[in-house]
């Protein structure tokens, strides 16, 4: 048990460690947030129409500070630094989340489509105005009938060789563009994703820049815009719908980085396979998922900071005869509710840091290997899923831990909860994303994995030996070296301490390999046995999700462990190691049934994990306030009246 | 595995079974809901001020139909039927939840205080006007500084023998009344809970009827009312704050069923112990908790009905070569996400039915044994906790399962989620309630258990032999008879089928007894070892919660099992048995680590539980629509645009 010695925290050093190399950018954004702090009041008091305008103003003000172009090329007025741009976005997520999402739509999604899918003519035409928020755009991908399955969009673009124009049409009501941020009111342009048909033959989904409103904000001919109306949250974002009735745009409006249509209507692309082409295009938009994942981590930090500080102010019940009641955080249960979640926020922070560094490298290295790029996309998908679910969970627990006060809009949970709720859905439904992760693992990010749908993966795996699937995974190689670390459940003697990071990692690696090979075996057995691939996949699906989650949790723990190891000289080394232990052991505890079922955890040791989690909570209780202060969230962003009151 | 035979559902018979003996009342409320269905639109489109007035109008209209007085005595214009009044409230929870909560405040809390804590003079003066919603009142118990620990309220009432008045004062800012429904705008009267001091001596908390507003709605002298402002949800309820500055009310305004003060200022009560007196008073308000728990079950039904119906309309992804995509509910994962939760809604429905029947009996039987009354209060607390957490969880999963469409206010999740969020807090914080349940178990509902605070419980238990604690519990006696049913994990042979209800119950009973005795042992060991009771309790607290949850889950399964057994001739017997199996096994699965840790589940059998849960999901998939139709929620209440669209 880890009752002693007491850990201490050097808060400024902790903030420096967390802020990392982009501290300057983060502090610039913090300053912007504080200057615009009244937007948090406006969120409560303005009606939706007025608040949308307010949020637009904030975005345009932000653009004037240079904080919005960090990820764009310098020749177009940007900062040329993808890592910095994500750091800015993560920090922006401490503030109002309508501002965040509107910024994400404008600079990340619309800007990202123009930058990544377009070529010089689009960059020259749009980027500078876009970065400065003079040109507002939207990202018109999702349709009412197709969110996750983007390949089957119903919007169609044909080419009219006479006029050298593309003609864009919403073919059915379920093909209307839906939930599109910036579409209901503010966007003058849309990046429209549509199936390109040339001479009646589909070439798959492509993106087009389509003007949708004139200077007065009226719909352009053939375009119909609508409003999604009231939403659960994000009241400052004008989500809307778009219908296209034979809307014509010049041939040059095709975002033609990966494919083009000649004046006389001949289609060409360097990527022959239409599926691969589609996934290559989608892959360039990975930054959006990385950004949302980072925002999820930030939102969880805000929620847990408020909940921890409230638990250090609020007292309830007391020992008989004592005049003073007990602080909430002195209750073991309250520690249990907040501190493992706090450890998870730390863990995800460091995992996100690794992901951002990889993305930054990929964005600056034209020779970044294709396979690594696919692994990066997969990691981005998985991190987004874990981080946004963690946000939902932490905000919910934080609200409940603050009781009735947490329910009032004067405190921040109401907005945090309502605004973040859709994070688990947009930029990819989390369950669909985890299936993408599993697909990558099962196919070893092979060149054709993106083209395989879920049923195709089942067939693909069936064609391999299961051993092949497993031996190619990175974890398998690591595991060979670590086999000795991991005792079987029968072997009670000489067990490594639960606080041994090698042991913790070995546990997560062993689970990952075992779950993954189990999935491969079940898929293979089903297909070999002649079962319909659809039925096989459906029956194995929860196992597939477990494999992906096991993989992601291993990556997260590795990132945290590496960080602690690299911080051996840091004044906060010991406390970070304790937070890492709490993350690792509460993660193992949550799935301890699985390890017991598979003979890797004895019942006695399983109980010891629970005891150690409790002991770590007690150990970290005295530094809980320091740990949340380390996030350096501007106090104005906590906006929690309840923290100002005496109880 | 339970792949066959296929179960079928007789939907009208299922609705009759679920509606039970109060079908007529439920149908009356359904009719009212449909007539007032536009309140669901108003919830989205009206601003808070206008919506509050709208909700008040709905309440007053309801009162005119006779649906609001069911639980009050007939001589005062009521229906004299507590069971019917709760059935009405449960059904009302299919509709807008501001209406529900405002009705709960007016008729349940304020009305309940006058009825249960007052005597004939109060009943004569207030009940008829109150039932007919001509007199609007609020229930002023919670303060900013004291929600859970009501015994330590800061509001004080003294008696002025000169004027024969009570003088009520808010002694500190944290003693202001807070979150009080009806207080911000509509209430003319408040039932104020305050510590009564006579000659400088505290007699504990008592309730007083205090006029707070005049006929024009202005604060009366000495009273200050405030508005809690915007909240996460329940925008139609005017939650507010109250401050009292020496407010004087006649002596007769003390709600004097359990204690009185004579004209010359002498305090008297039939219950000598002030703690016991306090808990006796509180106990009479049990109906509020029963009502909120029932409303939680109803809210989960609405959410799961929408999510199931959407999953039977919406398609996404498809087998290669197939023109049609797959329905969401044909995915194994989607079944996993929705169907065990649906089974839990069924289980909680039947558990709630038992609870309501017990409450009804207690309310009509003046000789209802004291110990049973305490057990009933405990059961109400635990059911409320489980049901409201289930509501939060089902609504969240349902929203996510409906993707972006679930986020729009045009569908019902936005309101459902925001409005129900505080259910886990009001009428008692769920974690505090589960501790109350555990306290009852540990002390066998003994006459003094209510007076013991949590630290006192530790001391109490320490004074007993652990065996005494255990032997007195009901489950212990049941277990004796069932010991044979339960195989140990070593004994692989002759294991009963997982679908044997005796086995399922024996598992839950064994866990309850074992966890409870573990808590008793740990408390005793800590106290005997000289550890501070505060520290002992804090360290054992998560274990305490586990004991309470284990107890409640056993009661829920028993209620479901009894219902199925009694329905042997019902056309829906087999499908109900399958739903019961799904509830039982998914409950066991969720905590299977615990049974493995304690040698009651082998790893092979644990995996079999998971397989059986999946098989039951597949088995129930074809009747999922029938199972939600069985709830007989008026289609207007689903108010989900997404269910009307084609995809």
TrEMBL record, chains A, B:
Q: Which residues form the Acyl-CoA oxidase/dehydrogenase middle domain?
A: 138-247
Q: Which residues form the Acyl-CoA oxidase C-terminal domain?
A: 500-640
- State the organism of origin: Nocardioides scoriae
Acyl-CoA oxidase C-alpha1 domain location: 283-442
Name of the protein: acyl-CoA oxidase
Q: Name one GO biological process term.
A: lipid homeostasis
Gene Ontology molecular-function annotations: acyl-CoA oxidase activity; FAD binding; fatty acid binding
User: Where does this one sit in the cell?
Assistant: Peroxisome
| Family annotation (Pfam families) | ACOX, ACOX_C_alpha1, Acyl-CoA_dh_M, Acyl-CoA_dh_N
Q: Where is the Acyl-CoA dehydrogenase/oxidase N-terminal domain?
A: 24-132
Query: Signal peptide position in this chain?
Result: none
Which InterPro entries does the record match to this protein? ACOX_C_alpha1, Acyl-CoA_Oxase/DH_mid-dom, Acyl-CoA_Oxase/DH_mid-dom_sf, Acyl-CoA_oxidase, Acyl-CoA_oxidase_C, AcylCo_DH-like_C, AcylCoA_DH/ox_N, AcylCoA_DH/ox_N_sf
Cofactors needed by this protein, per the record, are: FAD
UniProt lists the family membership as follows:
Belongs to the acyl-CoA oxidase family.
Task: Name the keywords, alphabetized.
Answer: FAD, Fatty acid metabolism, Flavoprotein, Lipid metabolism, Oxidoreductase, Peroxisome
- What top-tier enzyme class does this entry carry? oxidoreductase
Query: What's the EC number here?
Result: 1.3.3.6
- Lineage: superkingdom: Bacteria
Q: Which SUPFAM superfamilies match?
A: Acyl-CoA dehydrogenase C-terminal domain-like, Acyl-CoA dehydrogenase NM domain-like
């Amino acid at each position: 048990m880890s009752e002693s010695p007491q850990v201490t925290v050097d808060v400024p050093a902790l903030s420096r460690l967390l802020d990392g190399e982009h501290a300057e950018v983060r502090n610039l954004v913090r300053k912007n947030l504080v200057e615009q702090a009244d937007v948090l009041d406006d969120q409560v008091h303005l009606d939706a129409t007025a608040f949308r305008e307010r949020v637009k103003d904030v975005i345009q003000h932000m653009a004037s500070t240079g904080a919005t172009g960090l990820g764009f090329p310098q020749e177009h007025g940007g900062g040329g630094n993808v890592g910095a741009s994500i750091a800015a976005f993560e920090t922006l997520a401490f503030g109002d989340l309508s501002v965040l999402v509107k910024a994400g739509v404008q600079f990340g999604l619309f800007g990202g489509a123009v930058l990544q899918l377009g070529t010089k003519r689009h960059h020259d035409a749009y980027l500078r105005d876009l970065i400065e928020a003079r040109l507002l755009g939207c990202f018109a991908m999702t349709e009412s009938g197709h969110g996750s399955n983007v390949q089957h969009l119903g919007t169609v673009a044909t080419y009219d060789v006479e006029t050298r124009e593309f003609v864009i049409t919403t073919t059915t009501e379920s093909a209307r563009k839906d939930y599109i941020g910036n579409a209901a009111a503010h966007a003058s342009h849309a990046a429209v994703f549509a199936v390109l048909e040339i001479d009646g033959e589909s070439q798959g989904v492509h993106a087009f820049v389509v003007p949708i409103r004139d200077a007065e904000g009226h719909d352009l001919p053939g375009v119909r815009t609508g409003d999604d109306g009231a939403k659960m949250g994000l009241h400052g974002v004008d989500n809307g719908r778009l219908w296209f009735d034979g809307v014509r745009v010049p041939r040059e409006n095709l975002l033609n980085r990966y494919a083009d249509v000649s004046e006389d209507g001949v289609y060409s692309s360097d990527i022959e396979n239409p599926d691969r082409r589609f996934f290559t295009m989608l892959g360039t938009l990975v930054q959006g998922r990385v950004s949302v994942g980072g925002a999820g981590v930030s939102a969880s930090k805000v929620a847990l900071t408020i909940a921890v500080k409230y638990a250090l102010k609020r007292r309830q019940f007391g020992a008989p005869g004592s005049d003073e009641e007990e602080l909430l955080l002195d209750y073991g249960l309250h520690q249990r509710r907040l501190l493992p979640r706090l450890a998870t926020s730390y863990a995800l922070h460091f995992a996100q840091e690794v992901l951002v560094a990889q993305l930054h490298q990929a964005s600056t290295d034209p020779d970044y290997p294709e396979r690594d790029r696919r692994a990066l996309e997969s990691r981005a998908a998985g991190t987004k899923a874990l981080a946004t679910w963690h946000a939902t969970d932490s905000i919910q627990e934080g609200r409940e831990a603050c009781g009735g006060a947490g329910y009032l809009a004067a405190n921040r949970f109401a907005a945090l909860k309502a605004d973040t709720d859709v994070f688990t859905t947009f930029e990819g439904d989390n369950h669909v994303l985890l299936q993408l992760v599993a697909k990558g693992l099962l196919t070893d990010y092979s060149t054709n994995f993106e083209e395989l749908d879920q049923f195709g993966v089942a067939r693909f795996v069936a064609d391999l030996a299961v051993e092949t699937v497993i031996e190619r995974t990175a974890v398998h190689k690591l595991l060979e070296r670590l086999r000795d670390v991991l005792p079987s459940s029968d072997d009670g003697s000489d067990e490594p301490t639960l606080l041994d990071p090698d042991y913790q990692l070995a546990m997560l690696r062993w689970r990952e390999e075992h779950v993954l090979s189990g999935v491969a075996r079940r898929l293979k057995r089903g297909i070999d046995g002649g079962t319909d691939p659809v039925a096989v996949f459906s029956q194995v699906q929860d196992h597939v999700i477990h494999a992906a989650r096991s993989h992601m949790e291993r990556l997260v723990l590795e990132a945290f462990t590496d960080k602690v190891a690299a911080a051996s000289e840091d004044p906060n080394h010991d406390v970070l190691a304790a937070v890492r232990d709490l993350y690792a052991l509460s993660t193992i505890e949550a799935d301890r049934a699985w390890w017991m079922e598979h003979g890797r955890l004895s019942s006695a040791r399983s109980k010891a994990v629970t005891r150690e989690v409790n002991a770590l909570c007690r150990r970290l209780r005295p530094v809980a306030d320091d740990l949340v202060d380390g996030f350096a969230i501007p106090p104005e962003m906590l906006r929690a009246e309840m923290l100002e009151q005496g109880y």
